[in-house]
Design goal:
mainly alpha; 124 residues
Length: 124
């Protein structure tokens, strides 16, 4: 618990120091050491953001729908395979098969069943 609290306060102090350094930099107009160190990474991130922006410009309503369909296909196909496997396992077990048939309305109807409707269906 204490390391978490210490980490929070150190991060909070770091954020305050960065804001104060930036304020001093803006007021004085002099570039600080931290800003000079970060100038090399500015170009790198600028290229990454421009590539993301260019890629996002290709997405419109039709391409978004196509991307969503492809993503749904790749998500639902494995789920369907799992469902088919579970169904196969359930139907291979005699007790589960009897339950599944009863749910589907294909269960065994005995003459002394409680429902007149079920007896009528069983006669057909």
């Amino acid at each position: 618990m204490y390391p978490l609290i210490i980490t929070f306060y150190l991060s909070f102090i770091g954020i305050i120091v960065m804001v104060l350094m930036k304020r001093h930099e803006v007021k004085s107009g002099k570039v600080t050491v931290v800003s000079r160190l970060g100038q090399g990474s500015d170009q790198f991130f600028h290229r990454i953001f421009s590539l993301v922006k260019e890629g996002a410009s290709y997405v419109n309503k039709h391409s978004f729908i196509a991307i969503a369909q492809v993503a749904a296909f790749h998500v639902l196909l494995p789920i369907r395979k799992i469902y088919v496997e579970l169904k196969h396992r359930a139907l291979s077990n005699p007790h589960s098969r009897k339950v599944v048939d009863a749910v589907r309305g294909r269960g065994e109807i005995t003459p002394h069943s409680a429902s007149f409707y079920l007896r009528r269906i069983g006669d057909k």
